[in-house]
Amino acid sequence: MNINKELNKICSILLAKTIKDLYPDCTIGDAFIGDQLANESGFSYCFKLEKRLSITDLPMILKQMHKNIDRAFLITYKTISKKEALELFKDNKFKIELINDCTNDTIEIVSFGDEFNDICEKTSIAKLSAIKQIKLINIAGEYWKHNAKNEQLQAITGIAFENAKDLEEYEAIAKDRSERDHRNINSEMELFSFDELVGPGLPFWMPNGAAIKYEIDDYVHKLLQRNGYDYVQTPVLGTQQLYETSGHWFHYRENMFSPLELDKVVELLRPMTCPHHILCYKMKPKSYKELPFRVYEDAILHRYESSGSLTGLERVRQMRLIDCHMICTPNQIKNVVMQHYKIIEEAAQTFNIKLSGIQLALHDVNNKEKFFDNEPLWQQAENKVREVLKSMGKKEGVDYYEAIGEAAFYGPKIDMEIKTALGRNITAFTIQLDFLLPEKFNLEYIDEKGKISRPVLVHASVIGTLERFMSILLEQNKGIFPLWLAPQQVQIIPVDIKTHGKYCAKLVKRLLNELIRSKCDERDERLAKKIRDAQIKKIPYQLVIGDNEIKNKTISFRKYGSEKSEELKLSKFISMLKKEVKIKK
Predict the structure, then answer these.
(1) Residue 203: pLDDT band with limits 50, 70, 90
(2) Helices 164-180 and 466-477, interaxial angle, to 10°?
(3) What pLDDT, on the 0 to 100 scale, is given for residue 33?
(4) Which residue, 559, 558, 548, 451, is CA-closest to 495?
(5) Cβ distance 503 to 550 under 8 Å?
(6) Which pLDDT score, from 0 to 100, does residue 84 have?
(7) How many CB atoms lie within 10 A of CB 575?
């Protein structure tokens, strides 16, 4: 599939003219959407209009776009002075702002005949007839310049192609993406929910989702315990003084919930556990022999996300994070980081998630507001992490790239990325080195020479927040879970509920006693429909029970996605399932 960026750039201008034709009182904005230029994956345009448009208006808008193509406007490009541009767009406050923001002395303009002008760099497209296929995708709210402090406009997105074949290929990809959208999968599997009465971004884990969550939690707990991590539980609140000490109050305040005053003490819902785990370390003096100190917690965290950024489970305001902290000597950094990298790697392999890249996130020496101002400490920390990655690269084939300005405010970090179904690289797992918090909290240990020394803090998780990890899993597997993770592992389907229902109830009880998540379909429906519904729910095993099964004391089963039925003694079937669960196939 070929996406012509210049063609889509001109199509965004065509969309702007079309909106202006249909709604003369609108004020057009610019060809941006989200944090990407529209023409990187299609086209878009934002505009201010009193009338609220909906997706049902898109066919009418598309029809007008084709009419404008048929009018065969002469496309011309020219460069004018800022002063001329300000006069040309004097009635459009958005264009005036863009012109004033421009650091150049001139502005590039595109014109469709004598009817329409817009700000646009010159392209190779000379005729609108080059646009052969257009698909309008969506209409949604968009803050001007992607800033929630600015007014909200409307934005239409779409994509244009030079031929029908590319459009067909795009629609096939779009269909696959829709099938992988965790929100669409959730509508079939009933994993999670939100309720306005509780508040936006606060997820409910429904029975099916909670079952998956339990298995993920259990796996990660055991993985960490096998590697010497100790489990702790700490309060969900912390005082403002705690976060002033850690620096989060000054660097992370906009992402924290409003303070609560309790008995004249100002408390906050915690957005992370590191200050709490540091206090666990400080409960008593430590010797170098007790390091590294490794703790983890299945923590409830609260982070304020703007309402416009909340997207299913990808971004929420309350989340679960199995958060890990390691406090070690400087000489132990390499081994501590390498060990945790291997833990993440093992988890990724278990869940069949492939890493697409590794980013070494560094500070920006010129940004004193975002990063704490101690250049020698930053250089020491970044060199340590770089040394670890280079060492790992020789042994494990690990490759990485460096990103300036992407570090946390307290230290550099290793971001392990995966590629989404949309082709975007996102951070799934993180290991962060921190020299700052040990200074702020005055952490100490007695070294081999009996002297007081400063340890190093390492922040890490195994799977990231559970909510985002669930959205990743659903996208990767389209909701088709292996047996050990499936919310319902067995569906028992009686041929006739009156005749076979009692026996099926005994089977359910037997399987539940073996901790195999099972249910019986007791609906008065046709057998074929019950089997089809079990397939739609992606249940790994479906057992069909009739006269022969009861007579022979066997079960007839089929696996998800298979048309073939097999027959086994119940005891052998249970052994087969328990083995499959144990090896986490």
Answers:
(1) very high
(2) 130
(3) 46
(4) 548
(5) yes
(6) 94
(7) 13
Residue ranges of E strands in 212-366: 230-231, 237-239, 260-262, 265-269, 293-302, 318-328, 357-362
Tokens 């379909």 map to which residue?
A: 521
Tell me the CB-side half-sphere exposure of residue 173, using CA atoms within 13 A.
14
Q: Which two tokens stand for residue 240?
A: 């403002």
The Cα-based distances of 532 to 96, 507, 525, 526, 561 in angstroms read 59, 21, 11, 10, 10
What are residue 264's phi and psi, to 5 degrees?
A: 65, 15
Where residue 64 falls among pLDDT bands split at 50, 70, 90? very high
Residue 157 — left, alpha, or beta (φ > 0 → left; ψ -120 to 50 → alpha)? beta
Neighbours of 461 (CB within 10 A): 23
- Average pLDDT for 523-543: 89
Q: How far apart are CA 61 and CA 65, in angstroms?
A: 6
Q: At what angle do helices 5-22 and 58-70 cross, to 10 degrees?
A: 110
In whole angstroms, give the CA distance from residue 576 to residue 70: 66
pLDDT tens per residue across span 407-463: 887 788 999 888 776 667 778 889 999 888 999 999 999 999 999 999 999 999 999
Query: In degrees to the nearest 10, what's the CA dihedral of 28, 34, 36, 37?
Result: -10
Place of tokens 């040990």: 438
What the block records as the tokens of 185 is 């999968």
Band the pLDDT of 310: cuts 50, 70, 90: confident
DSSP 79-137: EEEHHHHHHHTTT-HHHHHHHHH--SSEEEEEEETTTEEEE----S--BGGG--EEEEE
3-state secondary structure of 177: helix
> What angle is formed at CA 220 by the lines to CA 217 and CA 223, rounded to 5 degrees?
150
Over residues 321-353, the pLDDT tens digits come to: 999 999 999 889 889 998 998 999 899 999 988
Nearest CA to 230 out of 296, 164, 173 is that of: 296
